[in-house]
Amino acid sequence: QVQLVESGGGLVQAGGSLRLSCAASGSSFSINAMGWYRQAPGKQRELVAFITFGGMTNYADSMKGRFTISRDNAKNTVYLQIDSLKPEDTAVYYCNAGKTRTGSSYYPYNYWGQGTQVTVSS
After folding, report:
1. How many CB atoms lie within 10 A of CB 95?
2. Using CA atoms, how far apart are residues 28 and 3, in angstroms rounded to an integer?
3. What mean pLDDT do residues 45-49 have?
4. Mean pLDDT of 58-79
């Protein structure tokens, strides 16, 4: 079993930055990557980025440039840095534990955090 706890969301003005954190505990031998998703009101949950245990990163095409995913293995924590925030970034951001085979596609397992709300005002 894997438990994930997100933090770091909040209300921020457009142009600002936030760093979200996801603290992981527990283990599952088949997991080799962690991902960040977001879900805006009335929209489907979408992948933002994922990172392998070896540190390789991959971003959704629409997320390249302002989002940076990283991890601290010693702290079992994955981060998502969001810069130049826009009102359309307003969403609940979720952390996920999953798997990648080639580093180009991510398969989310049913391990989700509770989410952290990011609200960007214009």
Report:
1. 27
2. 11
3. 97
4. 94
Residue 42 pLDDT class (50, 70, 90 cuts): very high
Q: Which residues contact 10 (CB under 8 A, 6 or more apart)?
A: 18, 117, 118, 119
| pLDDT at site 27 | 83
DSSP letter for each residue of the chain: -EEEEEE--EEEETT--EEEEEEEEE--TT--EEEEEEE-TTS--EEEEEEETT--EEE-GGGTTTEEEEEEGGGTEEEEEE-S--GGG-EEEEEEEEE-SSSS--EEEEEE---EEEEEE-
User: Degrees (nearest 5) of the Cα angle 22, 118, 83?
Assistant: 85
Identify the pLDDT of residue 112. 97
| Residue written as token pair 């949950």 | 45
Instruction: Determine the pLDDT at residue 28.
Output: 82
